[in-house]
Specification:
Layout: H1 5-19, H2 27-41, H3 52-63, E1 73-76, E2 79-82, H4 96-109, H5 116-119, H6 123-128, H7 131-142, H8 158-167, E3 170-175, E4 184-196, E5 199-206, E6 211-216, E7 220-226, E8 257-264, H9 268-273, E9 281-285, E10 289-296, H10 300-308, E11 313-317, H11 319-335
Helix pairs in contact: 1-2, 1-3, 4-7
Length: 337
């Protein structure tokens, strides 16, 4: 069963308490210890003490196979203790499947350059795992190949930007757009880091524009944290829904449109396997073609994708999108004339 951070902190605290066999630990004692430790890790406005039922459930989980602890926790007269004096959940080793899963995650996340905690994930094994398990992880990773992404400017700013987002800090960035002769200074209240086609972007409130604005991280030359500025939150911005109707990084603010594609059956299986957008619907399949329908905002990224598949698709609606791509295709044809 998955465990959230608060639960994991409680398991850690209960484990520390039960290793101290010179004290009798009641549910109330364990709850207060958990509250104290939580305040040390992440101070809060008000002290939150777990309920007796929460502590009992935590002990049930620790005793079980859910997280692989199998903790030998005993109860006598309302007091808890470890039956095995040498036991600790920190001594629990990872299974072969655990090692394989973490190794795979390390390999995948390691492709995102600029985040040291992704790159260093494999080093976790060396702190608590046997040499044999490390060899299992290395062998698994050697059998996985990814497209080699090129080093992109600005990757050193990813972690500072993420920290600023998490800590709600205002940043001042030195930024030079493509085509500009010189760089400019921008103040930004960052909300989100987004990756698209190997490039990273940071979105946030831009006071000079009085709007949410997107900056390409590879065009950033310098970042400075402005501790003297108050962070402005936007209650209308939600990370998980902001790009819901959009492909790529260009947010126009326009309403999504119904787009209907006529796709030849040579290419249709690829769209079925990997939809262009989460709104994709298969309308009908004929002998030689398939009709797909979308509800999506028209932007440059969408047009680029449709252009890349122009030899397999045609746009039935909207007409203005069809005409826009038609003009681009005519220009492309002239380039090869």
């Amino acid at each position: 069963m998955p465990a959230n951070l608060d639960a994991l902190l409680r398991y850690h605290t209960i484990d520390l308490c039960l290793q101290n066999r010179f004290k009798k630990w009641t549910c109330e004692d364990l709850a207060n210890a958990c509250a104290d430790y939580a305040d040390e890790v992440a101070p809060r406005d008000s002290r939150s003490i777990p309920s007796k039922r929460t502590i009992q459930q935590d002990i049930k989980v620790m005793r079980s196979a859910d997280l692989g602890y199998f903790a030998p926790i005993k109860n006598e007269s309302g007091c808890y203790y470890y039956e095995d004096e040498k036991y600790s959940i920190k001594n629990v080793t990872l299974s072969k499947l655990d090692v394989e899963n973490i190794s795979l995650a390390s390999k995948i996340l390691g492709q995102y350059k600029g985040f040291d905690f992704f790159k260093d994930l494999h080093g976790i094994f060396e702190r608590f795992e046997s040499r044999l398990q490390i060899q299992i992880a290395d062998k698994l990773q050697s059998n996985i190949a990814f497209e080699n992404s090129q080093a992109i400017n600005g990757q050193e700013f990813l972690k500072p930007l993420l920290n600023a987002i998490n800590e709600k800090l205002v940043v001042q960035i030195t930024y030079q757009k493509f085509g500009d002769i010189s760089s400019k200074i921008h103040q930004l209240h960052p909300y989100l880091l987004k990756e698209y086609q190997d490039f990273w972007y940071v979105l946030g409130w831009h006071p000079a524009s009085n709007a949410i604005k997107t900056f390409a991280v590879d065009r950033i030359e310098n970042i400075e944290i402005k501790t003297d500025k108050n962070f402005i939150e936007n209650l209308n911005f939600h990370n998980d829904t902001y790009f819901k109707d959009t492909i790529g990084i260009t947010f126009t603010g326009d309403n999504p449109e119904k787009i209907v594609l006529h796709v030849d059956n040579e290419f249709a299986p690829y769209l079925i396997a990997k939809p262009l957008h989460q709104s994709q619907q298969l309308v009908e399949t004929k002998e030689k073609h398939t009709i797909f329908k979308y509800l999506i905002v028209v932007n440059q990224e969408l047009e680029n994708i449709l252009m890349s598949h122009a030899n397999h698709i045609s746009i039935l609606t909207p007409i203005n999108l069809r005409e826009s791509l038609k003009q681009k295709l005519v220009k492309a044809l002239n380039n090869f004339s």
